Amino acid sequence: MSESATFAKQSPRWSALDAARGLALVAMFGFHIVWDFAYFGIVPDTVPYDPRFQILGHAIAASFVTLAGIGLTLAARNGVQWQPTMKRIGMIALAAGLVSAATYAIFPEAYIFFGILHLIALASLLALPFLGAPAWLVALSAALALGLPLLVSAPIFDEPKFYWLGLGAVAPRSNDWRPLLPWFGVLLAGLLLGRALLARGLPGWLDGWQPRGWLGKTLVFGGRHSLLVYLIHQPVFIAVIFVITMLSGQRLVPGVENFTRSCAQQCTTSGAEAGFCARACGCIATQAQAENIWRPVADNRLTPDERVKFDEITKVCVRRGALPLD
Q1: In the chain, what percentage of residues exceed pLDDT 70?
Q2: Are 169 and 149 contacting, i.e. CB atoms less than 8 angstroms apart?
Q3: Which residues contact 57 (CB under 8 A, 6 or more apart)?
Q4: So where are the chain's domains?
Q5: Rounded to whole angstroms, how far apart are CA atoms 146 and 186?
Q6: Which residues of 179-193 are buried (b: 16+ CB within 10 A; e: fewer)?
Q7: 22 versus 266: which is more confidently predicted?
Q8: Cα separation of 233 and 201, whole Å?
Q9: Which residues are within 8 A (CB) of 272 and not within 5 positions of it... i.e. 6 or more apart?
Q10: How far, in Å, CA of 127 to CA of 121, rounded?
Q11: I need a surface site. Which of 40, 191, 202, 324 has the fewest CB within 10 A?
Q12: Are 47 and 255 in contact (CB under 8 A)?
């Protein structure tokens, strides 16, 4: 009996894989906490858009998608069990729909229409025919999926109905966008990695690893219930941060950094002096908060009455900005 067959008989799951998924969840928690801090104005709202932070987000997403590919291979190592497999994909698709509905209600201008759950559901479904395909075909398909967005870019794919493909020239506005291409290639790479692990077996120290301490047990538990954890973690984080912020007395001032930077840029582009622009834009942000219209200003969703008030604030601040600071 081969090593992989012996392992499959002895252990239906790899606890090490669950722990790896748990570690990815911990990384995701840190990433989302920073996003939430920026949203509530605890840290500058430019932080989530820092290229280094964006790269971190891609790395975390890649770990989840790769693990999904590995898990798909392991689940089918004794043949595809169609009912549990389709049930699992259906649950992920349902969770993706819940995420879309919730984010549309809260962030209609940047809701999640094709995020990581949408991707994993569709990519897992498309990967099923590759479970029995030759390794070279899987590798070639992964390379094509990864490289196609670099080679193909047409205006037609910038239409909203094609956003999910990932072949447009402009990235759509969304809080989490993981298009099929190139990310399907990442899942196929995970599928290949899963095959390699089955063929060679895990190292001895990981082969039959089981958690003993509380940390390991927590990671494995989280990894085994990752879908549920994914769905509930952000509402919990937002609620906790909101309560802490309110109790601490810190004002919720999201969007100030972005607004003042954009405002000053437009101002200086029109030919005004940089110092004047900084004073005027800072004044506008401060007064909008004082007049309780900052949230619609930051979201660019002013009502007609709020627009009148905002225009009055702008006029006053422009006059103040013309005066040098003492």
Answers
A1: 89
A2: no
A3: 31
A4: 3-247, 256-321
A5: 7
A6: bbbbbbbbbbbbbbe
A7: 22
A8: 34
A9: none
A10: 10
A11: 324
A12: no
Closest to 206 (Cα-Cα) out of 14, 11, 1: 14
Q: Check if the beta carbon of residue 297 is closer than 8 Å to that of residue 283.
A: no
- Residue 197 and residue 70: Cα distance in Å, rounded? 9
**Is 21 in a helix, a strand, or coil?**
helix
In this predicted model, what pLDDT tens digit does every residue of 80-104 receive, in sequence order? Answer: 889 999 999 999 999 999 999 999 9
Give how far the C-alpha of residue 144 lies from the chain's centroid of Cα atoms, to the nearest Å.
24
Residue 93 identity: A
The reported pTM is: 0.76
Contact present, 165 and 180 (Cβ < 8 Å): yes
Q: Which residue in the block uniquely carries the two structure tokens 């290639």?
A: 185
The pair of three-digit structure tokens given for residue 195, joined into one six-digit string: 């095959």
Residue type, 110: A
Tokens representing 173 are 């506005």
Of 58-67, 196-205, 233-242, 288-297, minimum mean pLDDT range: 196-205
Residue 81 has phi, psi (to 5 degrees) of -90, 95
Q: Is the peptide bond before 182 cis (omega within 30 degrees of 0)?
A: yes
Whether residue 80 contacts residue 131, with contact meaning beta carbons closer than 8 Å, is answered with yes
The residue to which tokens 């009148």 are assigned: 308
Average pLDDT over residues 12-25: 87
> Alpha carbon of 237 to those of 37, 78, 160, 177, 264: distances in Å?
10, 40, 30, 21, 33
On the question of pLDDT at 142 being above 90, the answer is yes
pLDDT at position 26 over 60? yes
- Mean pLDDT over 166-175 rounds to 87
Single out the residue of 125, 229, 96 nearest to residue 187, CA to CA: 125
How far is the first Cα of the chain from the last one, in angstroms, to the nearest whole number? 84
